[in-house]
User: Fold this.
Amino acid sequence: MPQLTDASDAASSFARASELRSQGRLEAATTAMREFAHRHAGDPDAMFDCAKFIRECGRHAQAAEVCEQQLWAGQRSPRLFALAGSIAHELGRFDEARAHYLAALRTGVNINEWFVLQALANTTRYTDVGHPDFALFETHLRDPALTARARASILFAFGKACDDIGDHARAAGLLREANALARSTIAWARGDWDRFVADQLRVRAPQVPGKAESDCIPVFIVGMVRSGTTLVADRLGRDPAVRNRGEMPFIGYLAGQLATHGLAADPQALAEARRIYLAHLRQDDAPATWYVDKHPLNFRYLGQIASLFPQARIIHCRRNRRDNALSIWSQLFGHMDNDYAYDFDDIAAFGAGCDRLMEHWRQRMVLPIHTVDYEQMVEQPERTMAGLRAFLGLPGEVGEQEASKPVSREYAISSASMWQARQPVYRRSVARWRLYAPFVPELAEKFADADG
Assistant:
């Protein structure tokens, strides 16, 4: 019988760990949660919350240990299986992730809350229509209790599987149905995006402090989603002088707070925003000089970034717009920032706004911007990485083998590119849109100015 956790101990432990996390002391917060897990190892609900917290601190290996200890002890919680699968997935342990996802399904996980089938599809590259996952997708799609978004997630999974085996006609049909369902669940307004872009274009060039107030160098990797930002961040993060922090949510939040309260140029407010961001950027692990924040949509806030960090460097990732649009349209995203992704007109509008803002920042900002084209990255990884390292001022060189090899399996990747980034650099995604041209004519019609 599961042991019950003392409520007061749980409340105080999580409060203390949350306080440490808010200070950017993620190692300390994780240690506090590990100690709590040791005291309450028999309570599956408490262990779920503990593992989830540690994962949110970016300490995936420790979160995986908490999950595995519970599962080895015989706990059969469906959501613990699902969480363990997700953590293993982000660590690149794909076989382990599949085993946990399948166990979650067998034990009755709520697939309206946990999109396990979509995750399952992203643990492997299918080669045969006879793979048992195909039947699994079809079976679950017959479930009348599915919500629209859960059904969409399975259709995206099924479409990905058909794409893997080269059945592009069927994949296109499944993805079209998936996007229609996903679109029915959101309310992205193109007019709101256009107004946001127009407002940013009217903002005066930021007054950048003459001297950086920190000796670390924030590196912001920006651009459209699915344009190679994860690939670039992971290659840079292999250097011991670089810390890749993944997609940090703080710039958008801080910029919004400063704008809402009319403090975007207030020195005191900027100093406090700078302090908060740097605490979460540097954290309490081994120090480094360069810190990567690869939230791609930070391109929306480069003006504010310039006012906060005069020493920052900007890497702008670009990709053939037709390939980029197809990749976006093939994915169910978890955050409302990407709610434009389910309609080609909206994708085109969002991409046009990105282009306008990036051109504006190049003309108005003093921060240096280096552009990386996805096609060049996959065709010439060594040359591309050499250019990036020179731009950032990183010492030494990187060889072709190092630039092309997959990322370490002990490093967590939480973005939609968690599978691709762990493969050797490949070229099959270049001009991939042509395979879909007969079935998705919008790619040529809506993005007619694209190359390739």
Remarks:
- The radius of gyration is 22 Å.
- The beta strands are 217-223, 242-244, 290-293, 313-318, 369-373.
- The CA atoms of residues 182 and 333 lie 9 Å apart.
